[in-house]
Amino acid sequence: MDQPAPISEPPGPAVAPSLRDRLTIPVLASGGILMAVMQTVVVPLLPDLPRLTGASAATVSWTVTATLLSGAVLTPVLGRAGDMYGKRRVLTGALALMTIGSVLCALTSDIGVLIAARALQGAAASVVPLSISILRDELPPERRGSAVALMSSTVGVGAALGLPLAALVVQYADWHTMFWLTSALGAVGVGATWRVVKKSPVREPGRFDVLGALGLAAGLVCLLLGVSQGGSWGWGSEGVLGLFLGAAVVMALWWWQQLRAERPLVDLRLVSRPRVGLSHVAALLTGFAFYANSLVTAQLVQAPKAGGYGLGLSIVATGLCLLPGGVTMLLFSPVSARISAARGPRITLALGAAVIACGYAVRIADSRDLWMIITGATVVATGTTLAYSALPTLILRAVPAGQTASANGVNVLMRTIGQATSSAAVAAVLVHHSSPVGDVPTPTLHGYLLAFAMAGVVALAACAAALSIPGDGTPDGTRRAGDTTRGARDQAMEGA
After folding, report:
1. Which of 15, 223, 352, 470 is deepest in the core (most CB within 10 A)?
2. Alpha-carbon distance 149 to 193, whole Å?
3. Which pLDDT score is estimated for 2?
4. Which residues of the chain are under the pLDDT cut of 70?
5. Long-range pairs, 232-235, Cβ under 8 A, ≥24
6. Which long-range contacts (CB under 8 A, 24 or more apart) does 473-476 make?
7. Which residues are CB-neighbours of 324 under 8 A, at least 6 positions away?
8. How many Å apart are CA 496 and CA 489, to the nearest integer?
9. Secondary structure letter of residue 17 according to DSSP
């Protein structure tokens, strides 16, 4: 299918970067960190929310599930909207929805309102792909790689900062204070984004595919709801099987509709190209492998000492154990950019996946000593930095300028599906390998080691998928915004 030429303004004369230009990267990066913090701040509250809200533990778990579902649905939708109507406008709107959700959380103790507010906060999952697309439009090629790598690392940095921060607030202040704090940070983020980030000159005209957005939303809700609730409802239950069947039917119809739409929400012909499709497969596998690290580490170090291996740490100490991994992600993002510039992003992605597998080997070798647990978790975080920083660069090199936000949104969606699947798989392994400790079912050390081994094998599969991606081809930046003639020629060559 022919791609519409992106609407672009001609580049102006070279001038020294203004203060606004210099602030663009920090403002976008702070938005990514804030998004990740917002997603993790509720975790320390989960054990106490049934008492604080009067709801059951199963109902309280929806404060996490709702954010996951809405983020998965809205990320590709808002990415496409950004390509069509302006990335700054959509990015500011996503941050505003996140902030409104935080204010609602701060004002209520009603579980229904909390779940709805957390669903609003899920819109912020689109912040990273939208920001990466803005960086492509605004930065010269020599600065783009390091900026994209930094933007990708903000997810891990924010998650590492959010957990101990939220734990400290919950331990020493009223839990609503945490949401007032994030509301204030969100308001600052909205204002800074609107004031500093420029309107993107690259647009893709056309009518928004409402039917495609609704179909994708319905299919993803069925799929992710079945994955997230399979452990509690039963994998063979009628509800879970019905959700999976519904997801298969809806996604098949959505695929058929997308292939026939004049301006589809997701260009499936573009996705079917090996450079794009295999990048999405690698994203799914990397998301699975990465997420097991945070899930298992948090439970392992908090396990009671009576079990023979646990450390019995508090939630604050647990967050501090994960903090070195977040700092490592921030430090290694420029390293990832340099490797991608020298060897290509697919090599960086493969290397990152291999490092993740090595980290899990460390976890299997010793998961009793705290320093070894932190070392293994940090090695996995390092590999995640390399992999996550390379994925958007692969997408940027493989898609037209007018589709970068939507294509990166799909890539983030694949990571989200991988993380949801990882959560369900790890939970199933740990529940199956549990034994009572003081009349409380507690995962055994063997169960944790099996979870590490499973994640390590998936990381090796991600490495294989990365190495299967065709060569990087022309370097990033040869298809510049505004160079429509060269962009059209590249599209024709890629489609051949």
Report:
1. 352
2. 19
3. 46
4. 1-17, 472-496
5. 232/58, 232/61, 235/428
6. 473/275, 473/397, 474/397, 475/141, 475/397, 476/141, 476/144, 476/145, 476/393, 476/396, 476/397
7. 374, 377, 378, 381
8. 11
9. P
